[in-house]
Design goal:
heterodimer; A: 158 residues; mainly alpha; 6 helices; elongated; B: 663 residues; alpha+beta; Phosphorylase Kinase, domain 1; 6 domains; two-stranded antiparallel ribbon
Chain lengths: 158, 663
Amino acid sequence: MGKRTSKPPRAAAPAGRERSLAWLQGLVVGALVTLATSTALLLAVLLAPAMVAFVFDRAPGRPVARSVALCGMAACVGPELALWGVGHDLAAVAGLLADLWTVGVAWTACAAGWLMAELAPIGMRAVLDALGLARAARLRSGRAKLAEEWGSGGLPDQ
Amino acid sequence: MASAPIPSGQAGPPLIGGLYSIDFGRRMDWAGGGLPAFGASGPAAAGLPLMAVQATPRYPPRAAVLTALTVPLDGVLGPLAHGPGRGAGGEAAYYLICPAPAGPPLGAPVRAWNEAALLEEVLRPAATALQQLDSLGLTHRAIRLDNVFHVPGQPVELGAAWAAPPALRQPALFEPPYSAMCIPSGRGDGAIADDVYALGVLLVVLALGRLPLDGQSDAAIIRRKLAMGSFTALVGDQRLPPLIADLVRGMLAEDPEHRPHPSLLLSPVTARTRRLAARPARRAQRPLVIGETEAWDARTLAYALAAEPDPGGQALHGGAVVHWVRRGLGDSALAARVDDAVRHRHAGAEDEQRSSAAAGGAMRAIAVLDPLAPLVWRSTALWPDGLGTALADAQAGDQAVLGALTEMVNLESAGSWASVRPERSDTDTLRSAARAQRGWLLGRNAGGLARLTYSLNPLLPCASPLLAGCWVAGLAELPAALEAASWTADRQKVAPLDGPTVDFMAARSERRLDVDVADAREADAGIQFGTAQFRLLAHLQARHHPAPLPGLAAWVAAHSGPLIDGWESRSRRTAIAAHLQELAQTGYLAPMLSVIEDPPGRSADSAAAQRAAEELARIDAELAEIASGGPAREEAAIRFGQEIAAGIGLTALAAVLVAAALG
């Protein structure tokens, strides 16, 4: 009898890393809320669609939520700079959030991110299908030439 | 003497031997010895009347005689030239050009001759002619009333006897009984003694002034000759001039060795003193009845067994013959030999083998009873040297005889027959010949009855329907004949080389072509034209006809489709077909064959075909992968699409950050 060694499941390491990352994110968010409450509040409102997407996107890597978040964050840069420019307090946050344009742009950016995440695969599928069809056409053309040259010599016709 | 192939595509009647023309309007059938004959003319005539004797394919001319008889002989209408031609009706024919006889045949009408005339005008000139023939190793075998010609006061001339198998048209009266009992086409060349016998009969007829035994059947004449002896049977109590009677008695001896040689006949007085008396045969007190034939002695018993095979076989194998020979004839030694010959059978063999064994037993018994008798196989009697002509005749006629002859060859019966009568035949030669004939018949590669028949008959024409109207007896004549046929045959429907032609080529060509011949046969010649046939034709042209054969080449090209289809590449096939058509116009088959065979090209073609097959398999696999790759593409599209979306978002974020940093 040889010595038997038991191996841990392969999914155990990524799951552990994911839990560590979740803890790290929680720590960052907690620090942000504690140390920069107004910034966190503004981001929470402006990136609300992204957080919703993170909740509902269960795909590995959360690709849709990621796209929504990135687009939303691009729209948050302006309001955050404005917040920091006027004093970085809750009144300024309220004033910024009261401006529907600011919220609308941020949420529209999130919507654009979601839309891109949904439409890009469709476009890519169209592109791949087109490439496949073109390749098949070239192959069939080559096959027809072979069959014409060697057709009655025993090659099967398609 | 010359022989030339029949010219093809030439206007006008062909010249025989390239020199002699035939006047079909001047028939001379009275001079042809039973064969059609026509007046002829040519440069060698010089005032000498000529005639052309026509041979038919069923009865080919005597090739050995035409080869050996190259100089004119006194007293014989010898051949001056010979060659193929067309009959008066356009049929295939072969002609022998001979001097026309100076006078009418002796039989028109028969009259009584006196002794001096018989000696000076008949015996001496005929004996001289026979002596010359014998010195060349030849026989005449056609001495009879309608083939010996005479001008009053002049010596007789022996007619032409070369355009048909030996003794084919000899009546039983003029033949020794052992030759007369054979099938007419199987009598063989025989010996000069047979001509001496026929000359003896002629002397009797002329001395008597009438035909003895006139009106009797051949069988009756043979029985009478065997029972009484030929001289007594023919002369009976008639009176002949004393000298003639003494000469004829020797000339009509049953044993050929007892007949005087022609040189002896040149001196009749000396010849009459030569008496070789055969020992009288033992005669039984009571006859043995075989069928409708009564046998009184061993000779007539042998004939009865030959003539009545069924009752003869029963009597033989039932023991009646042995019993009669022992008791009735009183010859215990002969009875023991007959018994030994008959008992040599295949115990436990199949019916067919038993039947063959019984036939072999009868053959040996007849040979034991009468060593002078010919080979008798199932009532078919023949001399072994007449086998070839008998086969040629039987193939066009009696299938029962053909079956008997084939069985006889298959069992090498001639060797067995010779071993029973070693003192009367060259056993070793006959055995070797029988073995060779069986080899031709059953040869693994190119054997067959047709090959055997062609091999034994050098002037037998090819029986191919393609060559109808042409007498093609040799390979040298075949290319031109096929070229002529190519302009009349339906090139698309009929192949240029059919089965009979392949058999003919097998018989006439050297053994190294046997493999090609066998391949051609396997391809069922006549239906499918294959490489083997192509090779045979190319060899034929290269060997025997160096001139172009455009018609035959075009014919071959028209049947080269299956050969070209052997190439894999379509473009190469098209190119080869076009090239063949070009080469066909030149009329040479060897270059066409090279294009068809081309071993390096074939190898390259096969390799390219293999590569093409592999490429095609790869394409098919990729097409299948594309056809079945929808889910994979879907997955890839989602993955790439989402990455692209994330990338755009990241780019926007970076751009905004950069813009903010720059103020």
